[in-house]
Amino acid sequence: MCLSIVTCLLGIHARFMPFINHLLLSFAHLCFREDLFYRLNVFPISTLDLKSRVLDIPAISAHLLVRNAAEKTHPKLLSSDALDRLMQHDWPGNVRELDNVMQRAEILSYSDTIQAINIVFDNELITSPRNTMDALNSKLQARAL
């Protein structure tokens, strides 16, 4: 998929090709015209996996909490145990997985602070599925107390 963006204010014309390396190689060898690939591949940008950038997790998590709190008065906070749990995960899904985990934790937390128990990773949902109604009922019971 190639996405062209034209920014009139700055007069910038840029093409973004969001491919993963192995996907890009398969496109280059199978169905992507080689001359077109080299025409578009002017300035490749590569980034490290999130698991290689563990020290970025607190800043990215804080950004996601602030972004998700756009309609609320203030964003939720992460407890130190919750942050430790996030930093120990291997993040096969990178930042998108972190975003899902943060949104899930915000839903499951019943206070202004997200605790480690509210952090549920995608692979945990596959290996031991949780009953959504039980999780939400426990949240309602905690609010009632």
Description:
Helix 3 packs across helix 5. The protein folds into two domains: 38 residues, no CATH class; 95 residues, Helicase, Ruva Protein, domain 3 (Orthogonal Bundle). Helices cover 50% and strands 10% of the residues. It is mainly alpha-helical and 145 residues long. Strands 1-2 form a two-stranded antiparallel ribbon. A two-stranded parallel sheet has the order 3-4. The radius of gyration is 20 Å and the shape is elongated.
List the helices and strands and how they pair.
Blueprint: E1 3-7, E2 12-16, H1 21-31, H2 34-40, H3 57-68, E3 77-78, H4 80-88, H5 94-108, E4 113-114, H6 122-127, H7 132-144
Parallel strand pairs: 3-4
Antiparallel strand pairs: 1-2
Summarize the structure.
The protein has 145 residues and is mainly alpha-helical.
Low-pLDDT ranges: 1-9
The main β sheet shows up as: 2 strands, antiparallel
CATH class of the largest domain: Mainly Alpha
The string of secondary-structure elements, in order, is: EEHHHEHHEHH
User: What is the 3D shape?
Assistant: elongated
Give the CATH topology of the largest domain: Helicase, Ruva Protein, domain 3
Q: Roughly what percent helix?
A: 40-55%
Question: Which key terms come to mind for this protein?
Answer:
145 residues; mainly alpha; Helicase, Ruva Protein, domain 3; 2 domains; two-stranded antiparallel sheet; two-stranded parallel ribbon; 7 helices; 50% helix; elongated; disordered N terminus
